[in-house]
Amino acid sequence: MKLAFLDLGKLSISKANMRYAKKAPDVADILPTIRARGVLVPLIVRANGAPDHFEIVAGARRFTAARIVADEKGDAEPLPCAILEDGDDAAALEASLIENVARRDAGEVEQWESYARLVREGRSIADIAETFGLPELGVKRILALGNLLPRIRAAYAREEISPATVRHLTLATKSQQRAWLALFDDKDAYCPQGSQLKAWLKAARRCCSRGCSTFPTARSWTLSPS
């Protein structure tokens, strides 16, 4: 890794960055400082194959704020950048995750997306846990979000479903998740959450073991074990 000052026009946000393809991040908290003092903390970048051009893998908010200031002043100052070695996607993902986790604004679904990509890049659960200072169980819980139907995962990202509910759903089969989603979508139905969901899933497993063709409804399931 080497340090350099790069022109704004030579930089773009990398697909490895957790904020790629999303709306421009909120920079209201850092904009006054960057107006007054410029960007002090280096962005983490890598070459993207185009001549003299680099992708930002960590520092999208600082980059966005610097562009706003450049538009205001009509002049852009070069930004301090730490340049990663070519082709190291896993290192790029880790750099982006470390920055966002350190700021504590990366949601679990965002973490799952990046952890899953790290796994595809060859990182083990132990590697990820060591990099981010997490217990392996914590990494496994995040990766378990991959067991969810996309609609459930999206609802969790929007904070429409509680963490306790999601933990139980990660252990459910796809058919159980679809049945739960039907209750979730029905405004007139009771949709079990948290510990109630645990009981509902237990009742669903009992029902399936007996050859039932339907899942338990709010009226048919009970908290008492059979």
Model description:
- The structure is a single chain.
- The chain is 47% helix and 10% strand.
- It contains ten helices and five strands; from the N terminus they run E-E-H-E-E-H-E-H-H-H-H-H-H-H-H.
- The protein has helices at residues 31-37, 60-73, 89-102, 108-120, 125-132, 136-143, 150-157, 163-169, 174-185, 194-209, and strands spanning 2-6, 11-13, 43-47, 54-58, 79-83.
- The protein has a five-stranded mixed β-sheet.
Q: Beta fraction of the residues?
A: 5-15%
The pLDDT mean sits at 81
Describe the largest sheet.
5 strands, mixed
N-to-C order of helices and strands:
EEHEEHEHHHHHHHH
Q: Given the structure, what is the number of helices?
A: 10
Sheet with the most strands: spatial strand order = 1-5-3-4-2
Distance between the termini: 61 Å
Tell me, what's the shape? elongated
Number of beta-strand segments: 5
The level of helicity is 40-55%
Structural class: alpha/beta
The residue ranges in which pLDDT falls below 50 over 5 or more consecutive positions are 218-226
Rg, Å, rounded? 23 Å
